[in-house]
Amino acid sequence: MSQNTLAPPATGSMAKRAADLLSALIRIDTTNTGEPATTKGEREAAQFVIGQLQDIGLRPQLFESAPKRANVVVRVEGSDSSKPPLVVHQHLDVVPAQGDWTHPPFGGDLVDGVVWGRGAVDMKNQVAMVLAVIEDFHRRGVKPARDLILAFFADEENGGVYGSRWMVEHHPELFRGAQEAISEVGGFTAWFGDHRVYLVETAEKAIAWMRLTVAGSPGHGSFVNDNNAVAKLVTALHRLEQHQFPPRLTGTMRDFITQLSQVTGEKVDLSDIDSIKDLLEKEGEVGTAAVAALGTHLNLTSLEAGNKANVVPPSASATIDMRPLPDERDAAWKMVERLVGKDISIERLNDQRGMESPDHGPIFEAMASSLTRHDPGVPVLPFMVPAGTDNKALADLGIHGYGFTPLKMSSDFHFWKMFHGVDERVPVSALAFGTEALTDFFTTY
Ligand SMILES: [Zn+2]
I need a labelling partner for 289 at 20 to 30 A (CA). Which of 74, 196, 198, 236 fits? Predict the structure, then answer.
């Protein structure tokens, strides 16, 4: 037994084990502030994970991309070496916990069958479930159907610069042969009215953050100035804001809408995006996310110019968060260049690909049947996430990514609000379902 590890119980369920591991992980504060100097805890969390893995005879490797920015990778041998390995990746960092919490965000309290704390759903839950399942395999002498490459990344919450992206750039050999990966934001219960389904992420929009800067002639506010930087910026922003990127259904969203209409019984015309939008807007949190996946969108997020009412500043700038559909990334950048004009410089702050993985075929079938085996008859739908995960980094290696962190939840549990929200928590019953579904998936696929 290595230092700092959590001894497995002699008996007891995987759910209990996953809950204990989750509590322990939440107590290691791995807040990612976005600033390397104040981000903390990733090394401690990585060492905790390493300890658990070593205790069952595995040989995890630690990779530090920068001091204390720790990533862990370990290979678990499967029973059929002719199958390509599957990457199972999760991130160790969490976003800051602000606001008033019912239970302390880094306490990992277990209260009335619910584990509370930052990371309970995003995504120390999956770290805990994967560890519990692999430990159970070891105890029972079970092997997964194929090799698993377990990866525990730093820095997902700030774009993966010190985590997945660094690992893919500096250690691509660790992922050699892998064609598919599973990670967060999928595999959980979603509700459309009274209809219960599971959503599996098969696609992600691209990320295109930018800073626009324009220079002009500074001067006294009382003079005539026809080269005013603020005015030029505002004009360009107005053109951007007015532009409508044409809405479109990608393959994933076409399949999602078609299957959703079968579930709800509401007829949809796939050629009429406005009616699809109307339909989705009635569907609460999931509908909101789905509407964002119907086209390329952008939001103006910050402005900077001047500091005095009677002084025209020499320059003005703005930041914009654009989320192109996976196959519209290049076209979207070109459109922005055209709309803002030559006078304005465009700095790409964050430019990450989208992805669209096959939403049918063996891996999707295996994920779906591992869910329905424990929740019979519930439809499993593919879904495009408007935000991003570490799947984007692995996609650069040609690996198809999926969101598959199985959790079964009731309709009164506001799951989507848990992500980065106050009072993040997860029921142990959801972890019970998740460990069973992951066990099935790893042993059958
Ligand atoms: Zn996450």
Answer: 236
